[in-house]
Amino acid sequence: MKLYSKYLIVLIAVFSFSIIMPYFYSIIFIENTSKDFVYYSEIIDDFAVSTFTQNRSFIYRDKAGNTYTEKEFKQILPQVYVRDLVLTNSYSEIINNRIISAEDMIKYNFYLSARAKNIDEERIRIKLSPVFETQSGSANLTMPVDLARIGKDITFINARTREIDKEKSEHFTNELINKGFTFPVKLYGTNPDVRKPYDVGTFLLDKNNTLFRLYMVKGKPVVEKYNTNISNEEIIYISIRENKYADFYGFMIAKSGNIFLININHTLSKITVDNYNPNKDTMRININPLHILLNISTDKYQYTYIYDKNYNLLKSYSLDIESSLSGYRLDIYNMLFPFSIYHDAYSAAGYLKIEKTENLLLSAVFIIFLLCIYIVICRYFKSISKTTVIDIFVIALSGIYGFTALILLQNFKKDTLWE
Amino acid sequence: MKHIFYKEKIKLNRILLAVIIINAAVLIYTFFRVRVGIMLNEPSGIWLDIILRNGIFYSKVETALYVSALLLGVMQFYPEFERKRFRLSCHLPLNEYKMIFYTSLFGIIVLTVLWLIDMAGVVLLASQFFPIDIYRAIPLVMFYWYINSLIIYTFASSLTLEASWNVKLRLALMMAGCIWAFKMEVYNSSLSYAVTAFLFAVFYCFSIYFPALRFRKGL
Description:
Chain A is built from ten helices and 25 strands. Chain A is α+β, with helices and mostly antiparallel strands. Chain A folds into three domains: 2-30 and 332-409, no CATH class; 34-109 and 295-323, no CATH class; 112-287, no CATH class. In chain A, helix 7 (327-336) crosses helix 8 (360-380) and helix 9 (388-398) packs antiparallel against helix 10. Chain B is mainly α.
């Protein structure tokens, strides 16, 4: 039992150290990295990159390697810096043989994004959602007194009385069924923010992967069906954002990484994306009058894709993302820590993530070094015993974590801690 | 076992009363806080806020549970350490491993009962103001608090029972990283993860044997 208690503490320490040590190493040796912002210029017909350097200044360049001043850079990217250009009277309405006024450039410039965290949050969210009255006669949206439970049917629960509004629930459920909806609801998306200017409703995917739009007009449900076939895609996220100038209501993301814009004309526009894992990466879309720019940020690379107005891929560009640990600091990290455990209390899917070293060879060499050190220490203090074999096994498996735990537990001068 | 439990009960009478009062007071406070919030705002807005922000409106209960675990861990073993009672207890006509196990088990049972009361209280409270969708998600969130409270209790009792300040510090270094390893701040997290965390907490609880056996040997 004495021996078990020792190794129990060692195992707990290995777990504990594998969280603490990499964390402290990272926050002590973290580097200020440079960040790249990739755009596409119709004027130079190439990708343009602004780099926020470690010295906290910007470097402007294009894919070909030409550098620009800040003023020049703004002029080749009117879709990004339209407001600055208007301010300095340097906005040109003729861009690539097209006439686009500054007003239109501002109005029809949309930014959409989805992080892996957003998708994770939506997956576990309690399935209660407001259905706003879209024609209340008031300029502002008001919070409804009830929330809808969206699942095997639509059930409205009055928050003041906590009672189910059976009549309204049946009305909404039946209206959906009448329009061809097959319960249960597979996934839904809405913008539940009451501060938005107006409401476009809730978008629901039915059992057959058919998309429906549900909204309320004067207390009555209105259902619109999207006659598009996406049955071969597993949709994992729906994001809705109201914008009166946009010709879409929002977008959906499939597990495959493909993105579907939900158009106001009851169609879906498919954007085929490579190198996108929605459960890990961050996606940003900029839809502007010139083109559609899609940016995927993984932990190592930044991919940028340019599409035309019909969502055909025109060009792509990829850049490495600088790690907050690089060079010898990263090598030491990979050498010291054979694995590390990360914990995210705000992620339902994140939990305890175990990441193994990126340099297995370096890590193995360091473990052998630790083993030698440990044996030398044991021999020096004449504390080699039968359990030393177990100690060596622990160090071989856990590296610095087990080594530190055993050194901390060991009392070399009088080896009485567990004997 | 009965006798050890009786001994622990006598020893911890005042502490037990204190932790019950702390937890009850926090539950009552939480009830009135939620009631005021619901009275002054549109209830559906409060519901939505909880859903969208993973609002843990009963988070004070978490603190109360952790304080209780810390108090129990320290106060259950401090007298044993201070007056060397523990060594005497090890000479009782009972296997010393069982003695350590039952002593520790008493604290764990108290924490479990406390957590169950807290959970029942919060669920009952929530059922007065919120729909079932919200209050049925509460036990899983609170289960992580229970796991953390077990870890805090074991951590506190292990450090209290360890006689040497040198080893106390080393143990603290080795065991501290686990304290917040299972903190969870979202509703509807995975049940399998909760079970894994619980198994780890059970495993962690046995670490009390290390300082206990050292203390028994007079190290």
